[in-house]
Amino acid sequence: MGAYIARRLLLVIPTLLGIMIINFTLVQFVPGGPVEQIIAQMEGGGDVFEAFSGGGADVETQATATSDRYVGARGLPPEFIEELEREFGFDKPPLERFLNMLWNYVRLDFGESYFRSISVIDLVLEKMPVSISLGLWSTLIAYIVSIPLGIRKAIRDGSAFDTWTSGAIIVAYAIPGFLFAILLLVMFAGGSYWQIFPLRGLTSDNWSDLSLLGKIGDYFWHIALPVIASTISAFATLTLLTKNSFLDEIKKHYVMTARAKGLSEHKVLYGHVFRNAMLIVIAGFPAVFIGVFFSGSLIIETIFSLDGLGRLGFEAAVARDYPVIFGTLFIFGLMSLVVGILSDIMYVLVDPRIDFEKREG
């Protein structure tokens, strides 16, 4: 197992390098960089993309060859444009910028946001609690509900209970997350019905003045609706995975042998079947958490006015805040690759019979 882990760790480097090269190359061809953003703000356009749609750029008024490179420059002094390029590092060729960026990342220096005057690391740490809250609680609730439900469905396979619960979770899976989130707001957050939960934020304004129990209660009060909205679609996959795993194990010979020996059904199911059936479900916990952590957070955070990593990435992409874009891409890409290795280790810990080295051989 040690050799397998070592090989996987070595593969992290070229994989991460490939991700960064592809994304850095694509960014070079995307219009509306940070220099254009500054020019658009100075010209009162507010949004650089209006210039590309013909809403504010008058190319004929651009006076210099330097400013001609930027839509909307409108004759700004070339010295000013060059100063902006130096400030953002665009006075260097792309290859040199990319190599400098990688060298800084190796030293864990992810730079500073172009527009927020804060380091990328501090910015990520500032937004992390919201995303961790959504990812962690959504994953835990999905497991707590899906595993018992999947086991019950496997035991009562083909019954009326199995049929109507399958219909319910498939309908829940089919409902778009943003639509369900809006429904929760309308029903329980001051829409047309009840004002039970708050509309925005992770905590109340007076959170620091509350007691310990008050802080805990306030936190769960704010996170309840976003967590439910982000969890609803996860029930179907985990429930059906648990059910199918149990059904596969129940049909195996060792289960029939255990029953033939006179063991009770409860002991057969939870003493023998459970451990084997839960291998794929439990070992996949890190990957499921990362999946919930990264996917769907933007919509949920926007609807519930939560300032997390989803909104951070979206706003950085719109503003062309390259240090934030590439810094978060590097950090999250590294996290995903490491979690993939942890998932394999979890499989081995749960079931020592699994040997990835023999499979590779």
From TrEMBL:
It is a multi-pass membrane protein. It comes from the Bacteria. Gene3D superfamilies: MetI-like. SUPFAM superfamilies: MetI-like. Signal peptide: none annotated. The chain crosses the membrane at residues 9-30, 132-151, 163-189, 219-242, 277-304, 324-350. It holds the Pfam family BPD_transp_1. Residues 128-343 form the ABC transmembrane type-1 domain. It is found in: Cell membrane. Keywords: Cell membrane, Membrane, Transmembrane, Transmembrane helix, Transport. InterPro entries: MetI-like, MetI-like_sf. Belongs to the binding-protein-dependent transport system permease family. This is Microcin C ABC transporter permease YejB. It comes from Sedimentitalea xiamensis. The lineage of its organism: Bacteria, Pseudomonadati, Pseudomonadota, Alphaproteobacteria, Rhodobacterales.
